[in-house]
Amino acid sequence: MDLVKNHLMYAVREEVEILKEQIRELVEKNSQLERENSLLKTLASPEQLEKFQSRLSPEEPAPETPQAPEAPGGSEV
Question: Could you say which residues of the chain have pLDDT below 70?
Answer without folding.
Answer: 58-77
